[in-house]
Amino acid sequence: MPGPLSLADLSTTNDSDFVAAVGGAYEKSPWVGEVTFKKLKPSASNPIASIAVLHAAMAKIVDLADVDKKLDLINSHPDLAGKAALADSLTEESKEEQSKAGLNSLTEDELARFTKMNDAYKSKFGFVFILAVRNATKTTILKSFEARLKNTRMQEFEQCIAQIHKIAWMRLLTILEPADTGFLTCHVLDTASGKPADDMEIVLERLSGEGQLGVIGSFVTNSDGRLTSGRALTGKDFSVGVYKWTFEVGDYFAKEGAKLAGTPFLTSVPLIFGIDNPEDHYHVPLLCSPYGYSTYRGS
Ligand SMILES: NC(=O)N[C@H]1NC(=O)NC1=O
């Protein structure tokens, strides 16, 4: 399989090569790619700046389409674990997504549940149930089926289009090299003493995604509670996937002379988080005391 295409190369292709490269982001609907090319008019002097820009342009074409066209787009998708999947006639993209969610290895009982759900959904709403399943599991899919069957037709129509945009985003991420703008930073605040946590050890691991798995960096916070290197990951190393920080808070609070139990309550704090947009800045901090902690997605 060829490697990911650069945005620079995509920007200098002609219309048919452009659609061949990225048109599949929207299932069996090359019109989305065709209109996007006409709108963006990419070229060497007018390059597509990021996957996010391309995705937003494609999503806008879909959002502005009329209801029938949107309905066709929804129904262009195969059922999850449906007839096309069983007959092995899925598009490559859909096959990969459905198999990542384990839908290609269902037991007879599980298959019967999926068939029942697909039928119930279609008879209530009159279109295919859509869920971006690349990072889902059988359990989360079935739970989502159950919950969404309670919605109105309008809510489901909108939900399906939203899911289709998510599917397209993840497909574009597998096809294209992201722009070099994303990076990961961290900051540790000691909320017991109201100051940055100086000299705390932190380890970063990649748990899934492209590139080396396991430990990818060890850091020590500076007097501002930040990493001396500033960025923990940047450029190509900052890729889609699941990551884990481990904060050695026990050692830090012991060093600080904090009042600790004989067996300290917090020793290490693991923080597992996902990177969905490798072109963005993810700031993933820790606020901690010897007895509690929290985090948030910053930027
Ligand atoms: N029905 C449905 O949601 N199908 C899709 N979902 C996904 O992630 N890939 C598909 O083909």
Brief overview:
This protein has helices spanning 7-11, 15-22, 30-40, 51-64, 67-75, 83-86, 92-100, 108-125, 138-148, 153-175, 249-255, and strands at 183-185, 188-190, 195-196, 201-209, 214-220, 233-234, 241-247, 269-275, 281-283, 286-289, 292-294. It is α+β, with helices and mostly antiparallel strands and 299 residues long.
The SSE string, one letter per element, is HHHHHHHHHHEEEEEEEHEEEE
Total number of distinct structural domains: 2
Using the 3D structure, state the CATH architecture of the largest domain: Orthogonal Bundle
CATH homologous superfamily identity of the largest domain? Oxo-4-hydroxy-4-carboxy-5-ureidoimidazoline decarboxylase
Question: What is the CATH class designation of the largest domain?
Answer: Mainly Alpha
For the report, how would you describe the main beta sheet?
Answer: 4 strands, mixed
DSSP helix fraction: 25-40%
How many individual helices? 11
In total, how many beta strands? 11
* % residues in beta strands: 15-25%
Kindly provide the radius of gyration, computed on alpha-carbon positions and rounded to a whole number of angstroms: 23 Å
Stated plainly, the CATH topology of the largest domain is called: UraD-like
Mean pLDDT: 96
Low-confidence stretches: none
- Spatially, the strands of the biggest sheet line up as 3-2-10-11
For the record, give the distance between the C-alpha atoms at the N and C termini, rounded to a whole number: 34 Å
**What is the approximate shape?**
globular
Structural class: alpha+beta
Cofactors and ligands: 1-[(4S)-2,5-dioxoimidazolidin-4-yl]urea
